[in-house]
Amino acid sequence: MNINTEKNDKYTKYARKYPAIAAMLLPSMALTHYLYNLEIFKELFKQISDSWEFVILFIPSALIFSSIGYLARDFFRSISKILFQYPLFKEDETCMPTTDLLIYKKSSYSSTYIDKIMNHIEKDLGLKLKRKEEQSLNETEARKEIANAVQLIRNKTRGDKILLQYNIEFGFCRNLMGGLAVSLIFTILLIISSIVQGIPCNMQTIFMIIEIIVFILAYIFLKYRGRAYARQLFTAYLTTKK
Q1: What is the signed CA dihedral for 134, 139, 141, 142, rounded to 10 degrees?
Q2: pLDDT (tens digit, 9 = 90+) per residue, 41-72?
Q3: In the prediction, which pLDDT does 8 show?
Q4: What is the pLDDT of residue 1?
Q5: Helix/strand/coil (H, E, C) string of the chain?
Q6: Spatial CB neighbours of 120, under 8 Å, sequence gap ≥ 6
Q7: pLDDT of 32 higher than 60
Q8: Is the four-CA dihedral 138, 141, 147, 151 of positive or negative sign?
């Protein structure tokens, strides 16, 4: 199998499939508790112990939501990009951490190190990026130039295994957020349905709170992993053999 194909398969598995399926776990449990409290199922399973009743209801619920997550993984990815990545980093990537690292006034890098990266880009890619004084005069254009350069740098560093892991971690957090946004809608609908039917919704509410907490954590880690990926990208680029 081609090396790039193997890496794409690994990214698809860990950064798209797994977060989509994981995001559907909590609503499947919320659905199980919802069905558990319906009178029709209480009558149906009255000869079965509560624990077995829960298991019998959970298995199909988990399978249904796992299938939804698996089939909708690209949809979740699109949602996460539109709702979270683009507002946070902009669609044209001019506010991505990779861009900020080469903006002198925003970067955690020293001016000397930024100059080293820019010199390497100019020599390797033939792109002359704006330096410190020029950036202060036209930062918007400088950001566009850096974003364009970063797209080419990614192609140069596709073979870096460490960078791939950073990319997977960033993609996992981003795509998990998209899946959690959908799972929250499912859980809220179950809570509303429970209230309408006058059945307990305490567990569904707890699952909703857990989803919100996990969502917030994923958002925090998204920003952190984005910065970590950006630093590794330039490290990999400077050390990649031509």
Answers
A1: 60
A2: 666 556 565 566 666 667 777 788 778 877 88
A3: 76
A4: 46
A5: CCHHHHHHHHHHHHHHHHHHHHHCHHHHHHHHHHHHCCHHHHHHCCCCCHHHHHHHHHHHHHHHHHHHHHHCHHHHHHHHHHHHHHHHHCCCCCCCHHHHCCCCCCCCCCHHHHHHHHHHHHHHHCCCCCCHHHHHHCHHHHHHHHHHHHHHHHHHCCCCHHHHHHHHHHHHHHHHHHHHHHHHHHHHHHHHHHHHHCCCCHHHHHHHHHHHHHHHHHHHHHHHHHHHHHHHHHHHHHHCCC
A6: 237, 238
A7: yes
A8: negative
Token pair belonging to 211: 């989803």
* Tokens coding 113: 């190190």
The pTM of this model reads: 0.83
Q: Taking the chain, what is the end-to-end CA distance rounded to the nearest angstrom?
A: 23
pLDDT over 70 percentage in the chain: 89
Look-up of token digits 């925090």: 220
Q: At what angle do helices 73-80 and 50-71 cross, to 10 degrees?
A: 70
Tokens representing 48 are 């079965």
Question: How many CA within 13 A on the CB side of residue 81?
Answer: 11
The whole-number pLDDT of residue 69 equals 78
Mean pLDDT for all residues in the chain: 87
Tokens of 176: 């998990």
